[in-house]
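Hi team,

Below is the intake form for CRISPR-associated protein Cas6 from Thermodesulfobacterium commune. Please confirm the fields before the structure is written into the shared record.

FORM ID: S-0412
PROTEIN: CRISPR-associated protein Cas6
ORGANISM: Thermodesulfobacterium commune
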Amino acid sequence: MIKIPYRNLTFVCEPKDELYLPEFKGSSFRGVIGRALRSALCTLKTMSDCHECPLFKTCYYAYIFETIPDKTTPLPFNLHKYPSLPHPFVIEPPETDKKIFAKGDRFDLKVILIGKAINYTPHFILAIQLAGENGIGKGKRKFNLLEHLIEDGEIAINFLLNLQETEGPFSSETQITIEFLTPLRLIYQKKLVKRLEFHVLIRQLLRRITSLYYFHCEGNTKSIPARELISLAEKIKTKHHGLRWYDWERYSFRKERRMQMGGLIGKVVFEGNLSPFTPILKAGEILHCGKNTSFGLGKYRIVEEEV
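The structure came back. Fields below:
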């Protein structure tokens, strides 16, 4: 059993004037929040690269936004081989396709803080306030933070391999429908995943859960039976693949170029012995899956329906 505490922050915002945002708004909000946090927390702003800063290991901003492993220290599941680690937060932008928000047209911005990042709640509240003052989107239009709501939770994951002891919504089910609401961007065997297989999804979720638990909850990962779960996951079949590729790009101020960030959206139906994966899949609904989750990518929900 592992436990991952998290905190849902909901920010109720109101544009001061007409506000222009792209169709997918997560990147825009991550950008303004990151710049606001760096402006407020960075003590050596002359350093262009956080990783070269002598204060890197004790900096609040670096911990939140520049999360990288120490490549000299072997880590569980070879996590030290990855260029970056999951950030301890997820941004969920307003769930709407509209691009223009009129003055006074309120919207909710959600941020999920994970593990130790919960301690930085005041920093995120300050960052949203500063982001509103600095402006966002086309023309850097400003918005007010009217209020913030806090809801705490805990993900308890019991990696059950004995199917006679399972519990949860899939305990007697052999089929599951998953709907990806924001682009799922996965790399498997050094290639972008265009057709999702269940074991690939489970591999990615296990890596994400393990990394978050180890680095942001200071947990012991020895109890996670990753190999056994992956072996079981390879037996799960795809009954219906209704996912499609969604092209999306963002502009990176750091790299000074536009970047392709496409991924899979839509529904997929898997069938087989799904009971051991109940806690993993439920955790992923909160934590998201794949790359760029800090933008809000990889958000999905479990749908109780048949295709």
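SUMMARY LINE: The chain is about 25% helix and 30% strand.

Thanks, M.
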